[in-house]
Write a structure and sequence with these properties.
Strand order of the largest sheet: 1-2-3
Distance between the termini: 46 Å
Helix content: 40-55%
Order of helices and strands: HHHHEEHHHHHEH
Radius of gyration: 17 Å
Number of strands: 3
Length: about 210
């Protein structure tokens, strides 16, 4: 009986018992399992580590309100980053889904700048998104548990380094934000802002066609 239940659990985590979501491009509002979300990011971003998956699941569950100060400093930092940024095509999509619900996305700043979208509007979207996002500890723990199970069953392949350390912190009751891993930063030079997809689209419209 327990073997059967274990197989069913593995099928669920693997996405075989969930609606199949075509995830070639990140789109707003699509639901997916942890497996499909992580596999998308493995394809989209080089050198994805356990630490980077943790960061993604954390952002999707807690938002980024803890990073926002006053409006003027957020605006200044964004404008400075955009001013010094090239717009070389790194294969990034404008919107990069980071939540299984499709509600939370990363706005990649290189395509944002290349499209000449308004930074002032993005600042307002960031604050509106932070206010509208309710931290969800249970969601984070559930998604992290699914991620660990997928590694344990060999469905997802990740180096073991970092998993035990992060897991021990969580088991001790500490859930805190982390930075991207060094390999991820060196390979991808990430530059983005985390927002709610519906809030972004309420200002800039449906931008999914620009991801293709």
């Amino acid at each position: 009986m327990y073997q059967v239940l274990g197989k069913v659990l593995l099928l669920i985590l693997s996405g075989f018992l969930l609606p199949q979501v075509v995830f070639a491009q990140a789109t707003c509002g699509e639901r997916c399992g942890v497996k499909r979300l992580v596999e998308f990011h493995q394809q989209q971003n080089k050198s994805l580590q356990v630490q980077d998956v943790y960061k993604m699941l954390y952002q999707a569950s807690f938002g980024v309100e803890h990073l926002l100060g006053d409006t003027s400093s957020v605006r200044s930092y964004l404008l400075d980053e955009l001013a010094s940024m090239d717009t070389a095509n790194r294969g990034e999509t404008l919107l990069e889904q980071i939540s299984t619900t499709g509600e939370i996305v990363r706005v990649n700043l290189r395509p944002f700048k290349a499209l000449k979208l308004d930074p002032e509007s993005l600042v307002q979207i960031m604050f509106r998104s932070a206010r509208a996002t309710t931290p969800d500890t249970a969601l984070f723990q559930r998604n992290w548990g699914d991620f660990k199970s997928l590694i344990r069953y060999g469905v997802l392949n990740f180096p073991a380094e970092g998993l035990a350390e992060l897991d021990s912190l969580l088991l001790s009751g500490v859930i805190a934000p982390v930075h991207h891993s060094t390999p991820y930063v060196e390979a991808n030079a990430p530059a983005y802002r985390v927002v709610r997809c519906d809030t972004f689209e309420s200002v800039f419209g449906d931008r999914r066609e620009l991801n293709e």
